[in-house]
Amino acid sequence: MTFKKLLTEERAVSPVIGVILMVAITVILAAVIGTFVIGLGDGVGDTAPQASVDVDSGNDSSINFTHRSGDSIPADEAFIVGNSSSLAPNSTGVSVNEDGRIQLDDDLSAGDSITVVFNESSSGDTISLVYDDGDQSATLKSGEVE
């Protein structure tokens, strides 16, 4: 066999490439089907609200959370982490529920704000606006009482 004839012979290339392509397609299909069978494709979109929230501390032991933009924060899935026993009655937009949690009175949408006022004993405490839907929890914003 001459050297020139060896370089121009292409009979075995086509079946090898065909087998490689069939194996690759089989592996990709198995991975996609397996992902959905074990449930990794489920739950997309089940995330905490994506919202821009500002926090301001007042000189009167108050914290003001203002929703600037983004998703609405449902009242039944959001609460304030802080000492509910030192919550002052002049707070706006929140109340203490039967579990002792500081709960939002209404959904918090863009442009809305809530003011949480504490007794003087809470000075220096960190107060957080938390989202909790039972499956997941996320701190949306925190501030310190002055």
Short description:
The protein is an alpha+beta fold and 146 residues long. The protein has helices at residues 3-8, 13-37; strands at residues 51-57, 62-70, 78-81, 94-96, 102-104, 113-117, 126-132, 137-144. The protein has a 5-stranded antiparallel β-sheet with strand order 4-5-3-7-8, with no helix packed on it. A 3-stranded antiparallel β-sheet has the order 1-2-6, with no helix packed on it.
Care to describe what's here?
The mean pLDDT is 80. This protein is α+β, with helices and mostly antiparallel strands. The protein folds into two domains: 35 residues; 94 residues, Sandwich (Immunoglobulin-like), CATH 2.60.40. The protein is 21% helix and 32% strand. A five-stranded antiparallel beta sheet has the order 4-5-3-7-8, with no helix packed on it. A three-stranded antiparallel beta sheet has the order 1-2-6, with no helix packed on it. A hairpin with a 4-residue loop joins strand 7 and strand 8. It is rod-shaped. The protein contains two helices and eight strands.
Q: Features of this protein?
A:
Immunoglobulin-like; three-stranded antiparallel beta sheet; alpha+beta; 146 residues; five-stranded antiparallel beta sheet
CATH topology of the largest domain: Immunoglobulin-like
Radius of gyration: 29 Å
How are the strands ordered across the major sheet? 4-5-3-7-8
In what range is the share of β-strand residues?
Answer: 25-35%
Structural class: alpha+beta
